[in-house]
Each structure stands twice: as structure tokens, then as C-alpha cells.
Design a protein that fits this description.
- There is one protein chain.
- By secondary structure, this protein is α/β, with parallel strands linked by helices.
- The protein has 2 domains: about 190 residues, FAD/NAD(P)-binding domain, CATH 3.50.50; about 110 residues, 3-Layer(bba) Sandwich (FAD/NAD(P)-binding domain), CATH 3.50.50.60.
- It has 6 helices and 17 strands.
- Strands 1, 2, 3, 4, 5, 6 and 17 form a 7-stranded mixed sheet that branches. The protein has a 5-stranded parallel sheet with strand order 8-15-9-10-11, covered by helices on one side.
- Helix 5 links the parallel strand 10 and strand 11.
- Helix 1 packs parallel to helix 2 and helix 1 packs parallel to helix 6.
- The radius of gyration is 22 Å and the shape is elongated.
């Protein structure tokens, strides 16, 4: 086939999961390439929390440090988008959108996830500032002020209970859910959680927070609103490999404990496996998947040596 650029591992995605994998592979002296399009999920946030030893740090700075660490171990980087993966037996063909091509003994998918927000005016503009995703990542900073929860799925019922821990003034905007069942309504009442049944029509920044307007003309002045977007996993480039998926929102990739997918040469970590994972979870999963890919390569190196002997 005349393939050039053969790598031990090509990692697709250079955020925390991909870089953690790259570090493990680089330290194992594996010829490793990271192909990254440069759009990490948390690029809308200026600070990250719940990350041991890095609390309050800028996520972009963490990635810059991680890239430098991996590069010091000989990991190569390319700023590009992968268009297609093809199974070529002992190699996976990695075809980029610009037409260039690499061959990889193993591939590690760490392309993350995009949060698709409801089409409410103002919501996307305030994403990462007063429209928040995760009570653990951003809740402490808005504790003690009036907070909202935009309920677009039953998962928001659980989220409302988490937000209630941060403040005694919580409004759940439940217009998209329809009537709440009696048990949920009773639980909300017991915790003093208000429910707004009218649909949210607009959110707008104001000094010190956000104003949420509903279809009945009501306006709520809040410190912030929690809104879990639907996870979107852009995995079309891997369709040809028929990778097994989980029955969960976004249909994430199914992997074993070492991050191995249903394809013996393909690993995955981070948001593509766990769309609701935070930075430390993605970091740990990337580290394991990098070690998993190295283990498969080591096994194959030995098998080849035995065959040659």
C-alpha cells in the first residue's frame, strides 16, 4: 500500500485524556503522534476546580504544560482533523481531512464531546460564565445565591438536589419535562425547591448574574443557572470500524478497564467514553488507555519475535 509515517500509536485528540495517554506512551519509548483540532470541551471556562493540585488553574495552561511534557518524551504533534479510520490488518490507516495519511499499529480516540445546549436565546452566549454545567466544577463559586436548574431531561431532577446543597434558593425550570410526577414534586417541596412550569424563553446576563425569562412573562434574577447540554460525540471518522457503543446519552464508546474498544487495535478515553467525566476522571482514563495500548504493542512485539525465531 506504500503507507508512510508508521506510528506505534496515533492519538486523536489532545486534551487531558489524549495527553495523559501520550505521556504514558512517550515514557514507554513508543513512536507516538497526537493529532489535535484544538477545541477542548472546557475551553469556555477560565478556571477548573476539583482537580487535585491544580484547583483554580486555567485549563489552557494545563494543556500547554501537558503538551510540553509529552513532547519532551518524543511525542509528535499535528494540528489537524481526522476524516477517516480504515482497518488495514496489522495497521489502522489514519486519513486526515487535508488528504495526508498515517499508519498506526494502535489508535487511541480521545476526541471528547461537545455540549449541545437547548435553543434558548442567550444560553450559548453565557455558557461557562453564568450558564454552568457541573455543580462539582463550578458550584462552590456561586454558593449561597439564588440558582436555577434548566430541566431538559430526568437527570436534572438529580442535579437539582446537588444544587440545593449549595443554596437554599433553587428554582427548577421544568417546562421541557411536562408535569412532574407526584414523588418528584413532593421531594422538591420538602427541600424548598421552587418549580417554574412555563418554558424558558430567554436568558440574559445582568450585573452579578443572569435573568431568566419564561413564557408566562415571569423574570427570575439568579446568580447562575445549571443547564446540562446533550452530549454530542463526533465519531463519524470511526464509523468504518464498527466500534461497539454504550446505551447511554450520546452513545459513548464501550471500552474495557484498560480503555480497549471492541476493535483490538483501538483504544478510547475521556468524553468519548464518559461524557460526564471531569478533568481527573479523563486524566486517569487516558493514562490507563495509554498503558493499555502499550501492553498490546508489547504483546505483539513478543509474538513477532517468537514467529521470527
Amino acid at each position: 500500500m506504500g503507507m508512510t509515517n508508521t506510528w506505534d500509536t496515533v492519538i486523536i485528540g489532545g486534551s487531558v485524556a489524549g495527553l495523559s495517554a501520550a505521556q504514558m506512551l512517550g515514557r514507554s519509548l513508543r513512536r507516538t503522534l497526537v493529532i489535535d483540532a484544538g477545541e477542548p470541551r472546557n475551553r469556555f471556562a477560565a478556571h477548573m476546580h476539583g482537580v487535585l493540585g491544580q484547583d483554580g488553574a486555567d485549563p489552557a495552561a494545563l494543556l500547554a504544560t501537558g503538551r510540553a511534557e509529552a513532547a519532551a518524551y518524543g511525542v509528535a504533534f499535528a494540528s489537524a482533523t481526522v476524516a477517516r479510520l480504515e482497518d488495514a490488518g496489522e495497521r489502522i490507516r489514519v486519513l486526515r481531512a487535508d488528504g495526508s495519511e498515517d499508519a498506526a499499529r494502535t489508535v487511541l480516540i480521545a476526541t471528547g464531546v461537545r455540549d449541545v445546549l437547548p435553543a434558548i436565546p442567550g444560553l450559548a452566549e453565557e455558557w461557562g460564565r453564568t450558564v454552568l454545567h457541573c455543580p462539582y466544577c463550578h458550584g462552590y463559586e456561586v454558593a449561597g445565591v439564588p440558582l436555577g436548574v434548566l430541566a431538559t431531561s430526568p437527570a436534572a431532577i438529580h442535579q437539582a438536589q446537588l444544587v440545593r446543597q449549595l443554596t437554599d434558593d433553587v428554582t427548577v425550570f421544568a417546562g421541557a419535562l411536562g408535569p412532574l410526577d407526584d414523588d418528584v414534586a413532593r421531594r422538591f417541596r420538602a427541600r424548598g425547591i421552587r418549580v417554574a412550569h412555563a418554558a424558558v424563553t430567554r436568558v440574559a446576563a445582568r450585573s452579578g448574574g443572569i435573568t431568566v425569562t419564561t413564557a408566562d412573562g415571569s423574570a427570575y434574577d439568579l446568580g447562575a443557572i445549571f443547564a446540562g447540554g446533550e452530549p454530542e460525540l463526533a465519531l463519524g471518522f470511526a464509523d468504518g470500524l464498527g466500534l461497539a457503543r454504550q446505551d447511554a446519552p450520546g452513545a459513548p464508546l464501550a471500552v474495557d478497564a484498560m480503555g480497549r474498544t471492541s476493535h483490538p487495535r483501538v483504544f478510547a478515553a475521556g468524553g468519548v467514553v464518559a461524557p460526564f467525566a471531569n478533568v481527573p476522571v479523563s486524566m486517569g482514563a487516558g493514562s490507563m488507555a495509554g498503558a493499555g495500548a502499550n501492553a498490546v504493542l508489547a504483546q505483539e512485539d513478543t509474538d513477532r519475535a517468537v514467529a521470527a525465531a
